[in-house]
Write a structure and sequence with these properties.
By secondary structure, the protein is an alpha/beta fold. The chain is built from five helices and five strands; from the N terminus they run H-H-E-H-E-H-E-H-E-E. Pfam families: BrxC.
């Protein structure tokens, strides 16, 4: 592992699925997530796997969220692999697409959103 990989994370980390997340990989997964928002608050993290800024924000968010007593269900969307789903989120939830982006959803509506350095665990707890 190179020096930069140790600091910023290597490629092998992107292939591992973090247990913190439920992954949105189809429109059905998105539908289930939105349905779950009627029972409890959910959050969707939209991540560009090729973007250094997005990787850094994701790592910081994961560290921050793991030290909280969260009750929010967390969903992860890989924007590069599932761009059509990201477009559907923007259209259906009437929210402008950004990356990285955290959307907090309750009862099928976005109640909070943030992008880039504004993403924080405080938004969901």
């Amino acid at each position: 592992m190179s020096f930069f990989d140790k600091i910023f994370g290597g490629k092998e980390e992107s292939s591992e699925k973090n247990q913190l997340w439920k992954y949105i990989e189809s429109e059905e997964d998105l539908q289930k997530a939105i349905e779950n928002s009627f029972n409890h608050k959910i959050a969707i993290f939209k991540h560009s796997t090729s973007c250094f800024i997005s990787k850094t924000v994701l790592k910081n968010f994961e560290k921050e969220i793991e030290s909280t007593d969260r009750k929010t269900e967390l969903y992860f969307l890989d924007l590069l692999a599932h761009r059509a789903i990201s477009n559907k989120i923007a259209s259906d939830l009437e929210i402008r697409h950004e990356s990285p982006q955290l959307l907090v959803i309750e009862k099928g509506k976005v109640i909070n959103s943030a992008s880039h350095q504004h993403i924080s665990a405080d938004q969901i707890v």
